[in-house]
Amino acid sequence: MKERLQEIRERALEQINSTDSLEKLNEVRVSILGKKGELTEVLKGMKDVEPKDRPMVGQIVNETRQAIEEVLENARKELSEKMREIQMKAEVIDVTLPAKKNNVGHSHPNTLALEEIKKIFVGMGYEVVEGPEVEYDYYNFEALNIPANHPAKDEQDTFYINDKIVLRTQTSSVQVREMEKGKLPLRMISPGRVYRADEVDATHSPCFHQVEGLVIDENITFADLKGTLVEFAKEVFGPETKVKFRPHHFPFTEPSAEMDVSCFKCGGKGCRMCKGEGWIEILGCGMVHPHVLEMSGIDTDKYTGFAFGVGLERIALLKYEIDDMRLLYENDARFLKQF
Questions:
Q1: Using CB atoms within 10 A as the burial measure, which of 127, 214, 295, 326 is most buried?
Q2: Do 171 and 210 contact (CB within 8 A), yes or no?
Q3: What is the mean pLDDT of the chain?
């Protein structure tokens, strides 16, 4: 028994000293000191030892266990320190290297302009309403007093899905859908993407955005329209902004007008921005045509209303002094970060 214990001790120390990882060290511990380990098996054989020799054998077993556990613990600490040093070297940080920058997104000029417009009109009590971009010809044209073969259809030539469905040319179709609901009075703006068969150049695109407004209530007059748009212009372009209305024709409004604002760049003196005229056209507007109200089931003896429409890109181009509409769609981060 004594020789066997000595053999176990020497073999254990040899295995411990040759171990180069904590995992292997644990395997040695289990094979020697575990429940089924060699030393444990020796203890199970104590019943076969003469009673007078048991104290001596027990002492030798305990000394062997303590010696092995002590060497195991020292080896564990030494290996842990080595592993820690290797880890520290592998995870060393060079603080002189330049930091990695996070690419943070930036709002598009169109988005910035739209958020400002929404804020202005919501502050006036308007509701923001959206509708389908693929629209029935009825809502896009007929319900807006533009019947088949009307010349205005040539001005708003669009993309047809079939003879009854088109890609909308204006967000006025959303206004018709709201008027048909009959929930009056009505104060709303309808922003969204629209489509027209235009050639791409510095001021035109086959796909662009509009923000159209509609108010229907009792005793609405052109004075209400003017007051609303004057406030809108001052909020967008500055408190010194002046406006003027020029007679125009739109099939869905009567009377109709185009609105100009005094050039916010030169104060109306004339510059490159306003092409020397001192005024810049920004939107079309007018009183809603009685026939348009009637087609949506609205009593024209009781209700009147006004409508207006502004190109979102036009506001963005003017406000941020961008001279080419195509820049808005190229998605060049260097360009977008300027705003």
A1: 214
A2: yes
A3: 85
